[in-house]
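Let's do one together. I've listed all components of the complex below, 1734 residues spread over four lines.
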Amino acid sequence: MNWLIAILQTSLFVVLAPLLAGWLKMCKCHLQNRKAPSLLQPYRDLLKLTHKQPVVSEQASWLFIAAPYLIFSATVLAASVVPLIAVNLPTSASADVIVMVGFFAFARFFLALAGLDIGTAFGGMGSSREMTISSLAEPAMLMAIFTLTMTASTTNLSGAIAHVLNEGLILRPSFVFALFALILVAIAETGRIPVDNPATHLELTMIHEAMILEYSGRHLALIEWASQLKLMLYGVLIANIFFPWGISETFGAKDLGYGLLAILGKLALLAIFLAIAETLVAKMRLFRVQEYLSFAYLLGLLGMLSHIILEASR
Amino acid sequence: MILLSAYCAVLLSFASGLLALMMHQRQNLSAISEYGFNTFFTRNVHCRGWLNKNLEERRFPVFLKQAVFVLLGLSGVFAVIAGLAVLLGKGVITDQIALGLPWLPWHIRFDGLSGFFFLIIGIAVCAVSLYGPGYVRTYKENEHPFAALGLFTGLFVTGMLLVLLADDAFMFMIAWELMSVASYFLVAFQHENPANRRAAFLYLLMAEVGALSIILGFGVLASFSDGFTFDALREANLSTTWASIAFVLALLGFGMKAGIVPVHVWLPEAHPVAPSHISALMSGVMLKVALYGLIRFCFDLLGDVQWQWGVVLLVLGTVSALGGILYALMQPNLKRLLAYSSVENIGIIFMVLGLSMIFMANGHPQLAALGFLAALFHAFNHALFKNLLFLGAGIIHHQTHELNIDMMGGLIKKMPQTSALFLVGCMSISSLPLFNGFVSEWLAFQTALQVDVLDNGVLRSLIPVAAAALALTAALAAACFVKVFGLIFLGQARSRNSEKAHEVRDKGMLAGPALLAGLCFFIGIFPGVIIHLINNVSSQLLGHTLPNDSALGWLWLAPVSAEQASYSPPLVLIGALIAAGICYWYLRRSPLTVMRRAETWDCGFGGLTPRMQYTSSSFTMPFRRIFAKTWIIDEQIKKDLQGAMDQDVVAVHYQLHIQDHSWPRLYQPIAQGVNNLARQVGRIQTGNIRTYLGYSFATLLLLLWVIS
Amino acid sequence: MIAVYLVLLIPLAGIVFFALGGHRADRGKLNVRFNAICLLATIWLAVNVLNQGTILSDNKAFLIDPFNVYLIVLTAFVGLTTSIFSGPYMAHEKDLGKLTDNRLKLYYSMYQGFMLAMYLVLTTNNMGIMWVAMEGATLATVMLVSLYRTPESIEAAWKYFILCGVGIAQALFGTILLYYAAMQIGDGESSLLWSVLYENASKLNPEILEIAFVFMLVGYGTKIGLVPLHNWLPDAHSEGPTPMSAVLSGLLLNDALYAVVRNKMLVDGASHSHIAGYLMMGFGLLSFLVGALFLHRQKDIKRLFSYSSIEHMGMMTFAFGIGGPMATFAALLHMTVHSLTKSAIFVTVGHASQLAGTQSIDKIRGLIKTQPKVGWGLLIGTLAIAGFPPFGVFTSEFLVLLATMHSYPWLAPLLLLGIGIAFAGLFRHIQPMVYGDKPEGQQPVKANLWPVIIHLGLVLWLGLAIPEFLANWFSQATLLISGSTPL
Amino acid sequence: MNLEQTDFYTQAILSMAALVGLTSFLMLGQGRLLRLIFVFAVQGFLLTLTTVLAAYSLNNPHLYISALLTLVLKVIFIPWMLRREVLLMNTHRDVQALANKTVVMLGGASLMVFSYYVLHPIVQTTSPVMLNALAVSLSVVLLGMLLMISHRQAVAHVVGFMSIENGLFFAAIVATKGMPMVVELGVAFDVLVAAVLFGIFFLHIRTSIDSLDVDLLNKLNEVDK
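Okay, and this is what the predicted structure of the assembly comes out as:
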């Protein structure tokens, strides 16, 4: 039963991811006085891509073809770890937050390799930049997450969320720092403005898009889907860790329904904030990203220190 | 029985070395066999025919090389058996050999810790001896005599095994130096290259300094006890100050061998120039022996660890880990890169060991055992994947005659098996889930996160920072190995050599790495196997084990408690298979969407050439900018100008030299100091006999004055 | 007792034989035979001593105790192996036209003369005779140093002669003082006998003895090559024929140290100030460090190794100076392994310089590729002398270090520093010589490398395990010198 | 010490000591080789006299032999040989001006004082006469070294070397009534061989550097040029 719900939750994750992307795009369009595409447009894109005949470069090796599957499944596995509507699911026990970061690293590893596989300058450029940014983002992210896990004294996400939930509303300065750090990291990792622009194909600025330039058809669909999934995943992380209220602790249908509604609401709200931010802020130069990320790291560190000094001092 | 197999391992490796010496003794060997058959085995015609055939002029070298590696492999097998046996038997076996000083025979002690490292060495040696025969075939006998290579390989392995068995300071040092010297000769094996000679000199020099430091460390212990046996040294009753002095000396000595920043410089020089299977042993195994020495010295001989030592290890480890991987990132030479990455991994191990010490000294032996576990586990993993990668690098070098990764590319299509094995190595070392590297790194994080139990505020804030540095290290390692794999195997060939490369024909050369790759994956999925073994070590050494596998069974890894953290690699594997399977099935079901091959899109300019690809230096350019202070960067761009007013750029020359800071900061001043001092001292030898008489006269007067 | 006379008479016969024997082609082999018989005699002597303990001859002229008997055997052994090497070596030198037949005659005759002097130094019971023999050794070798008659060799020989002569004169003054001190307690002419002196050591006036010891130390120290009295040593080693360098380094220095240690035993018996030990430690450490630093600047391969001899003699002097059973044991062991290793190295060095036609380090290249045995011999020998296990030098250095740690821990870092510097100094020169491609036209030479193999084999054996009889021997000698044994 | 109270032998020994010391000083200040050799011969003769004196008064016949040896070697043979060399090589007209003669002489004088200072502990065991004799012989030894340090001619070095031997002999005779016979014969033999070797070396040095100036023998050094 528990396993079933876990699988269900994961599937829900996978299914809802394009919706979040659609909603985000919609909000952005409205903010920028453009006519918005339908909320379901991402689904249509994915469907269309899967039915197209993929064209693969002659230079490509098996790795290029295998990479999308690996990336997608790694991201799905990461998603399965994160509690969406309910905590205490068995999947989250099989892997904790560090493993989740590991899954991201796994996906990124293959994405970067795929970028290098064809042997074009763009692919290499994208891989190089992606690895740079992610290697700076990863410590910042772990710093933020460690703050939480040390508070909850567990690295299990569901355990941590349950801890916050049961503790009730306590204003922790460390959480404020951690939240901001995590948001900054999430923006960098999911390739949003101001770090990367998912809509651009201008060679000097693109990162994520540069790596997947050679993909088409179902391969492209998988990668796109995986990145939508990643966006949602970070959203859920922020929403459920810092504002866990509404998430279900039991597996009754009603509770689960409320959980679903709560997370949908929270994500919708987050997306609006993100859209506003993306509209207001301009993209940064590549080499300012390090400052941005070291700021995130600093926030994470401050969160950690304030946890140690202010909250858990003996 | 267990000890017997350990001895077998030692003797077999020694025998393999001696056998290699027979390379030029074909005549004598055949004479001996003739004599032997005539006198003893007159009837055994079959065997005789076989032997005679092998002793023929043409077949003999091949036969001998194989025989040498068979012996070496057997030694590895025995080492594995002995290691496993002693780990599972949980016993401590001691013995004495009547060698050494008259009042100090060689003391032998075989316990869990030695057993564990026996296991590491055994596996590595097995893989290497599978790989070796194919690899050494290309060496021309008159230029690179196999006798030297085989002899010193055998001695090298013998030395390492003996270090693990030693139970007194004297034998320990002998074995230790045997290991150093033998590997020195291996580094100098292809000595016609100046780089090899330089590396060998540096290596031997640092080995010597390190060994002296270790001797001094033992000396400190010995001056507080009566004797040099480890038993006596354990009894030594040291004040904290003296214990700390001993610790620092041991750290310097063992750290030098292990390659801790800033005393790591020999490592990236020496490892790349040795033959690849030797680099594999040096990087994969010898560094672990240094680690063994440190553990033996600190945890076993010194006994009461201080938390300050832990902090020292933690800081040094962090610096090494970050420094190592940042230096590795910049290297275009594959083996140099791997060597630097060894610095990184050793740094991680030291870091976790430091954590273990801190917990130990603060009275949390359970957590100390956790840290210890993580450290040993990572040591084990590093031995596996670094061996694998070096062997892979050897294959690549063997097939392309290149080590510069800017000259490779596209090998995945030419060498599919090698590339798959190498990919496993890269994934393990980048600590991606499902592979062994991840498990030990996960355990390291778990150890670091237990910081809450400590009372000391400095430690409580220092350790998380170290953990974040560990995260940065891991991410950089991933970037580094994306670069490695991407530039070597993916893309288009960047030189003629790699264009013409093909898969190795020798099955052994693939079997060795395949063994290691298989283990990497197996341990990544079932880490419990190794953890169980290490638990036996830590129960012997620290008196505590982990409470793992009680609540969740063998499937789960829950080092502290199931609530705090858990990881189940088999379930993750199943999940990944399901997810990948579903989408694969779903997407591939339609026959209409069969993949089509087409030319790469070239932005309409036409003709993508391999030179347009990213190179090592361009791949790492962002890192170079961000962490600019870490290196000494010498970047030169020269333009050849031509035409009216020198306006046309004909060619652009780009040069990039990246150097370690430790050279100009640490080593050159020392070298210069010694040279200066020598020059000053040289002035007393004036060549004038009257001056000399004056010295004699002055000495006499001085002494007479002193005496009265 | 006959053995002692045999040991002395055989080389004496050798001198006469070679001096009068006319021109013979097989002198090299005969030289080997003389030395071989002598070695047999010394072994016989050693067996006697091991069985019966200290032997004092009837007329009290000779005293053989465990300390000197082992040096006698060592001397005979190194003398033999070096003579094995010197046969083909000198023949080759003659073929090259560097030597005339007359000089070769002188060489062989003086080789035996030197051996005789060495045996006499070791066997005699009389301090005065010891001095005479020591001076005799200088006189025997001084002509050999200038054997090639090049300006440099004459310069070297002159310096050797004058410095050692003056030095040893001081030792004679010390001897006279000692004699004087001994006369104070009667006994007339026999007062110069070691056997008598040791018995009466505690009665001797310590202050006079200390002054005498200073003269002895400066005097014999010149021969040991202690800094700053060492200046003759590199010159003499580098300019003489290589077999001579081998025996100088392997034997003469040892015997001079033997003389100093004998005197130290006496001083220690008379006074309790340990001043002799401190002086030896100071000189030893200074020589050790300065010798190590000198290694870095050498351009001549034989000079290089002669400085290494200075360094090692310094180490031994230091160890004897520490006193105590372990340090003494270590020093004795070091004496043995150093002689063996250093003479082996000089053998390979001789061949290497014949190969390259020069002694200049910059011009000797690619030895391993040209003649693997010579190259490997030199390399392994250098490793051994630099104190790498499992060679015996390591064992002794290890023990010296530990003894130092035990008694004077603040000196141990200096010692280590010296070892490190010496190591770097040796290897920065050795590596380019042995490794690398061979220069155009470099041809192997005829060489007999058995001495090298035997010596290094023995050193290896001593490093791995000290055989029972040798250990007993050493510990008896240790007992004699330091008053207790490490066993 | 009261000189009047000592016997004739002691007085004679002390006078001899003074004379020997004086000859050493004379040698130290001597720039001309032939005169140097002459003074050396005189020193040798004084030594012979001392030996005879000792032999006579101590009734020690073997000292006569050593007196004879000294006479033959140090008074006749070596000076003759050196003189021959000097004349042969035509260096007898060379005058080597000592760089700072005064300093050297003063140094010599202070060496004498130093010798007394060093040997002072001997007074405890014996008469002050012995101290005087030993101190003089020590200072002869030291002055011999100083002679070698301050002079550049090889011949002067040989003279210095031999004068050191003289000092030693003096000490042996006065303090210990001569060494045992074997030793004395051995030492004499060594001196003889040394003298012969010196002769050979002069020839070699002469042929190789065309001079007997030891400062020119400086090819083997370790100093950076």
